[in-house]
TrEMBL record:
Enzyme Commission number(s) of this protein: 3.4.23.36
Cellular component per GO, a single term: plasma membrane
Transmembrane segments: 59-78, 87-105, 125-149
Role: This protein specifically catalyzes the removal of signal peptides from prolipoproteins.
Broad class of where this protein is predominantly found: membrane
Record's protein name: Lipoprotein signal peptidase
Swiss-Prot/TrEMBL keywords: Aspartyl protease, Cell membrane, Hydrolase, Membrane, Protease, Transmembrane, Transmembrane helix
């Protein structure tokens, strides 16, 4: 069953790369276009850093961090209990991994990440589909850890001392 999360990750990465290809071929030549007036535009940006442009130009740092995160997620997939609540956790990891891979592909191939979604009703950095995956996966992870997964005491002594 470990095969399914990797297939899902691959599909999400392909979707991300298709949207970035569309942005490169259709949006880069014009720069920006209104999508929903007063709410969202499509604006082509070459992001050479991380969120908000921090660590600009540190491509190999991002590749290394993505590699480490990827190894940690794969290890977690293998070691995680095969229970329902952990399936939700696997979903959050798939989103984070797909987003990280999608953006590292850009960095390695182009030297920058293609961003193109821009909220116009407030000041927020331009972002892409991979960024949405990472943010959604991280929020899902936090919610699961806070409200879904409950650690069981190892024995009755632990449950008595823990209260």
């Amino acid at each position: 069953m470990i095969f399914l999360p990797f297939v899902a990750t691959l599909i999400l990465v392909v979707i991300d790369q298709i949207t970035k290809y569309i942005a490169l071929t259709n949006l880069k030549p014009i720069g920006s276009m209104v999508f929903i007036d007063g709410f969202m535009d499509f604006t082509f940006v070459e992001n050479r850093g991380a969120a908000f442009g921090i660590l600009s130009g540190k491509i190999w740092f991002f590749v290394l961090v993505t590699f480490i995160i990827g190894i940690a997620i794969i290890y977690a997939f293998i070691k995680m209990p095969k229970t329902r609540e952990y399936n939700y956790l696997r979903c959050s990891f798939v989103l984070v991994l797909a987003g990280a891979i999608g953006n590292v592909i850009d960095r390695m191939i182009r030297g920058y990440v293609v961003d193109f979604f821009e909220f116009t009703f407030f000041d927020w950095p331009v972002f892409n589909v991979a960024d949405v995956y990472v943010v959604a996966g991280t929020i899902l992870f936090a919610l699961i850890m806070l409200f879904v997964i409950k650690e069981e005491p190892k024995d009755k002594k632990d449950s008595i001392t823990k209260g």
